[in-house]
Amino acid sequence: MTSHVAEEPLPGVWWLTGTRGSNVFVVALPSGGVALVDTGFADSAPAILRALETIGRPLEGILLTHRHRDHTGAAAAVAAATGAPVIAGAGDCRLRDGRLVLRPGIGRSHPLRLAAAFLRRRPAPVPVAVAVETPQEVLPGIRAIPTPGHTPGSLCFIADHLSAAFVGDLVISHGGELTRSLRWANHDDARYLQSIAEFAGIAPPAGFPGHGIPVLTGFDTALAALAALPRRPLTPRTALERARRLAAFASGFAARRRPARHVKESESP
Question: Is residue 151 part of a domain?
Fold first, then answer.
């Protein structure tokens, strides 16, 4: 299905349009319902609710890959509107007034203007129903896999019935290849690199990153190849490449997502 609210790059996976921030996906479940993976910025809520209405299946859960605001901004509004439980990594949660909520935060790679806006506005707390500490099935057909490093509570989700993974910021899929988050954008870069290597051992063929275009085949192979590459030292050339990547990243998540020209079959880096 391709419509004004979503594309369906893989049967059973809808890639929402009209959202802003991270990619937002709706995933069909074996139970007949759907899961929502990430929510973009707060102003993405109307587009998400329209897409859910168009898809026409009950929302069984909101899966958050990590706590950064470009992935979680609309989570509180969508949860309130639908009654769906929020599922997040335990390391990204805290107790507030006796209830479990998501720790608010923004990524270190986000533009300064976003950081300033975050400080001016106090986001609505996101209530968390399930805080994941170890690998587990969190919804029918969906396994949550802790992949800490980018944030303490980062998660990837594997839909075994679709042979697909939803990986948040574990990797980015810009420019025709998988790339890693910049070193300084991670809470713990050494643990982040370890998480890539560990997840590469169980990754399915299709991967849906939080930024960039979905990888429909060869994601597992490309991720394993990326995991084997060491970080490159900072040189004038690599500094320029990283500056370009950061600029592309910033411009990409600031705009509302339009229908993609294509999704890609991955080549190993």
Answer: yes
How far is residue 169's CA from residue 187's CA, in Å, rounded to a whole number? Answer: 12
The verdict on residue 1 lying in a domain is no
Q: Chunk the chain into consecutive blocks of 10 residues (it has 269) and report each block's average pLDDT, rounded to whole numbers.
A: 82 97 97 98 96 98 97 97 99 95 72 49 86 98 98 98 98 86 92 98 98 95 96 73 64 69 51
Distance CA 84, CA 77 (A): 11
Q: CA-to-CA distance for 9 and 245, rounded, in angstroms? A: 24
Q: Which residues contact 182 (CB under 8 A, 6 or more apart)?
A: 109, 242, 245, 246
Question: What is the secondary structure of 48-65 as a DSSP string?
Answer: HHHHHHHHT--EEEEE-S
Retrieve residue 49's tokens: 């609710």
* CA angle at 90 for the pair 85 and 91, rounded to the nearest 5°: 140
183 domain-assigned: yes
Asked if 55 and 6 count as a contact pair (C-beta separation under 8 A), the reply is: yes
CB 175 within 8 A of CB 248: yes
pLDDT the model gives residue 85: 99
Domain residues for the domain of 50 are: 6-265
Candidates 205, 194, 114; CA nearest to 154 is: 194
The number of distinct structural domains making up the chain is 1
Contact 178, 212 (CB under 8 A): no
Query: What's the CATH code of the domain at 120?
Result: 3.60.15.10
Instruction: Kindly list the distances between the CA atom of residue 58 and the CA atoms of 55, 136, 137, in Å, as whole numbers in the listed order.
Output: 9, 22, 19
113 domain residue, yes or no: yes
